[in-house]
Amino acid sequence: MSSPVIELDDVKKIYPLPSGDVTALRGISLRIDEGEFVAIMGPSGSGKSTLLNQIGCLDRPTSGDLFLAGKNTREMDDRELTSLRLTSIGYIFQKFNLIPLLSAYENVEYPYIMKHRKNDDTGRVRDLLAMVGIDENLSAHKPNELSGGQQQRIAIARALVNDPAILLCDEPTGNLDSQTSLQIMEILGDLHHRGRTIVMVTHNPETAEYADRTITIRDGMVA
Amino acid sequence: MIGNDIIFALSVRSVRLHFLRSVLAALGIVIGVVAIASIGMMGANMTLSVTEELSDMANKLTVTPYTGGGGGMMGGPGGGGGSSDDDDAITEKEFKTIQRIVAKYGTAYTIMSESDQIEVGSEEGRATIYGLDAEIMREILTVETGEYPKSTTSVVVGPTLAERLDLKIGSKIDIGDPDEGSTTTVRVVGILEERGMSMDLSTDMAIIGTQKLFVGIYGGEGEYDQVNIVVNDLNDIDAVTEAIEDELNRKEDTVTIQDSSRMTESITSTVSTMTTFVMAIAGISLLVAAVSIFNVMMMSVNERIREIGILRSIGTQRTEILRMFIYEAGILGIVGAVIGAVASIVIGYIVVLGMVGTTEYFFAPGSIGYVPIAMAIGAAICIVTGVYPAWRASNLDPIEALRAE
């Protein structure tokens, strides 16, 4: 049996609002093993993205424990969680979220520089861009000069540049046409076959079919 | 390739992306730096110029009649007080006392002076008329063209006055107001070398004749407007001052004694106070620039909230976000300060030349030193102003920031 790379134990998330507390997660416990491809599904407002944000250390659970590679994130401060996001988690967003001031190449290189404190002299950035189908000519362009599909490919390359243990995808095909969505899912499927742990939030059953397992969330709980 | 300090590279690119806005913000700093540095340099040049001129007089004392105040400040005797028509004069007896005291330390001589109307041909004006002992005149004044006056109708004139009224050797000057009485006509026999501003005697804009000539015009024989003392040893200045005070001011103040160091101190202090005051006013322009930089930085943070969210979500530390915005403010400040420094040197040079009349001391450390001071103030204000927007950016919640449109 594989070791769990992600483990949630009764994780709750409550947002205190002036109009009253909103409970987004109502005690979620789950375990995702190394190399698994898990799809998280559920209707809008069910808490899927909130769950992904907890796993991605962008947010902290109100209660409960979240273990990433055996380490309890509850005990980590902001600096350690940020460091974890840089080195162990690759995030792919629905809106691509590339840095507008940087070229495609520089967007992929950014996390590498932040981790290694030097430019990439190993060719990893170029290899990753080639892997996702971005040639040298395109890699010199700024994000606003590229199509949605091209931007998402660059976002995948960026997420992989520091060889993270976990790849988190939040509706990775949500802003793409069906043809481009297929190409993106094939890249993710290929990454999974190479042993990458992937957790993907989606509301599209066709996209979810690429996953080994589907977890459905409803009203902040695993259905 | 974006270099090792990617955070700095991002700051530079942000400044470049909003080039016009950045230039306008930096322009505020340029103006502030130029204002502070130019005014500071002008003040320093004034002080250095005056100090240098007065340092030649370190061994000189002036004794003037006590008028209840601090005595004349600059330019020696002259102005309204005539020796013949009021009590504010040093008497022959007082001069003899001074001479007796000074005898073992140096020499003393008397000056008579009056400010009066003059007429040269059809041109009218005012000038100070000095009456000096003929022998003393040869000792303390240098004639550049012509000779020293020998008769009671001949005079020498200062170079500035000669230039203004186009006076030459042989020119005739009518002294006195024809409406108030008779005038005296004198002939120019010499033009003096430029002497500059001086505590003991300012001759550049004056007519100098013998005391016999002076008494012939204004009367007041044996009554002097000023006694100048030249001490052989600088260390005796205090002893001479004390001795004169003891003799002449024992019962009541009859004379005022001034040495150049007090005058230098007084002028330096006045110029320094004025410079500081004007610099403080100039500093307001930097305050305005600070508000502008703050505004630009807040706009930059607000426009880049989503970008901050992205950076945070992919592993950028809070301190690095803070650094990114501080760098941005710093770039504006440093670019503004450097351009301001260059402009300060050019504008400061013109201002000093126009206001002080000489740029002899422009590159002296006390003067040019205002450029780095103004630069440091400008850059520091920028960085300090950028701290709050940077702090705000670094403390944004990554999820909230990612939701921003």
TrEMBL record, chain A:
Protein source organism: Methanoculleus formosensis
> Record's InterPro entries?
AAA+_ATPase, ABC_transporter-like_ATP-bd, ABC_transporter-like_CS, ABC_transpr_LolD-like, MacB-like_ATP-bd, P-loop_NTPase
Q: Which domain of life is it from?
A: Archaea
UniProt-listed SMART domains: AAA
Q: Does Signal count among this protein's keywords?
A: no
Q: Name one Pfam family in it.
A: ABC_tran
Keywords in UniProt for this one?
Answer: ATP-binding, Nucleotide-binding, Transport
Domain ABC transporter per the UniProt entry, residue ranges: 6-223
Q: Which SUPFAM superfamilies match?
A: P-loop containing nucleoside triphosphate hydrolases
What would be an example GO MF term here?
Answer: ATP hydrolysis activity
GO annotations of cellular component type? membrane protein complex; plasma membrane
Name this protein carries in UniProt = ABC transporter ATP-binding protein
KW ATP-binding (keyword) present? yes
From TrEMBL, chain B:
Top-level taxon of the source organism: Archaea
What is the scientific name of the source organism? Answer: Methanoculleus formosensis
GO CC annotations on file: plasma membrane
Domain ABC3 transporter permease C-terminal span(s) in chain numbering: 280-398
The molecular function terms of the Gene Ontology recorded here are: transmembrane transporter activity
Q: What is its main location?
A: membrane
* MacB-like periplasmic core domain sequence ranges: 22-246
This chain's protein is named: ABC transporter permease
Parts of the chain that traverse the membrane: 23-44, 277-297, 331-356, 368-391
